[in-house]
Amino acid sequence: MKFVVDAWSKGGGRAGVLQVGSCPALIETPALLLSTRKALPNFIPPDLLRSLPSPDSRLLQFSPLHFLEGPSANTISDIGGVRSLVSLHEFGFAAIPRDSTAILPEFDCTNKLGASFNTPSGRHLLKPAEYMRMLAAMKPDIWASLSDEVPSRATDKRNKLSVDRTVKWLDECIALSPPGTAGFGAIVGGWDALERQRCAQEVAKRNVSGYWIGGFGLEETSDQITSQLLRVVVENLPEEKPRLVSGLGLPEEVLRGVAQGIDLFDSAYIHQLTTGGFALTFPFEAAKRHSISDGMSDGTKINLRADVYRKDTSPIMKSCHCYTCMNHTKAYINHLLNVREMLAQTLLEIHNTYHYLGFFQFIRRVVKEGRFQEFHQEFIETRRGHSRVVPADDVCA
Ligand SMILES: [Zn+2]
């Protein structure tokens, strides 16, 4: 893995280039990792996945936890790893032991040997050695070490235990690290700034290729605390290595992360929008943001289940060049949603992913032009204005 930071914006935000494993594409950062179920997007088939902008869409997140129910590590190894399993040879893969869409950490676990997760088939205990055996079979380009994530309500004692365990497990993971892969050290500590700092300092001493910041997106979070915790963590990390955060998905959360120097984002946001029947429509440019007047939008998205779209023969966004907007109308997607055709989610996931990749592209542009702080402030202010006119039942984000 190679990573170079090539631009800093005054007041926050940095842009760089990441090259991982066998993925030939250079990924520009800040970047979005596409979330998957068993290494493929939830609804986008492989041929349409290739219709998304490249190389922006070439870095996929997957959760090894999804494979606890099979196929087995031996079978995946025999096939040649996750990349060969799903036949996406030109893509990069990042293994992260978390998926907030279906699998949650078992916070009350008292087992000191490994992380415990609630999965659809019951509770699973995963020890570092077993986790690394899975990764050796899956051959991801990037992997995050096993962590003991805790929610914001955790006690001081539990936060401390979480950090102690996560650092210990990191050492075990490093000792068993598969050759040719890039290990990211997990940083936890809940809502305790001192524990976050301690964890970041301990992980920064280890021989890792980057950092994975966990513990966000598990419960409602305060904007101010999120920024404070990210700042404490990033201040204690070397500048030359990439920082990946999970659980920050809303546009405002992404901007908050970028402002603190985060390079990579992984979240269930696109998945949640898509399964809810929502399409992202928020514009990036300031002038366009002021022009939104559609009463069905909250300034971020529209709900395509709404009756108002039943006879709407326009695309989700006329200015969007994604496969969905180039070929289909709101009326058709509304119909597909009403008759519960999975093609609705496929078309929505394509549009939402395309749109969000465009948002990240715009963020990189303003960082490189040195006007990220100005863009960030203006974005938040115009959206505050929108939120005052949105009907409460149309807002889910
Ligand atoms: Zn579109």
Automatic annotation (TrEMBL):
Cofactor dependency: Zn(2+)
Gene Ontology molecular function: any one: metal ion binding
GO CC list: cytoplasm
UniProt cross-references to Pfam families, sorted A to Z: TGT
Textual note on the cofactor: Binds 1 zinc ion per subunit.
Residues annotated to bind Zn(2+): C320, C322, C325, H351
Keywords on record: Cytoplasm, Metal-binding, tRNA processing, Zinc
One GO BP: tRNA modification
Similarity section: Belongs to the queuine tRNA-ribosyltransferase family. QTRT2 subfamily.
NCBIfam families: tgt_general
Function in brief: Non-catalytic subunit of the queuine tRNA-ribosyltransferase (TGT) that catalyzes the base-exchange of a guanine (G) residue with queuine (Q) at position 34 (anticodon wobble position) in tRNAs with GU(N) anticodons (tRNA-Asp, -Asn, -His and -Tyr), resulting in the hypermodified nucleoside queuosine (7-(((4,5-cis-dihydroxy-2-cyclopenten-1-yl)amino)methyl)-7-deazaguanosine).
Subunit structure: Heterodimer of a catalytic subunit and an accessory subunit.
Name of the protein described by the UniProt record: Queuine tRNA-ribosyltransferase accessory subunit 2
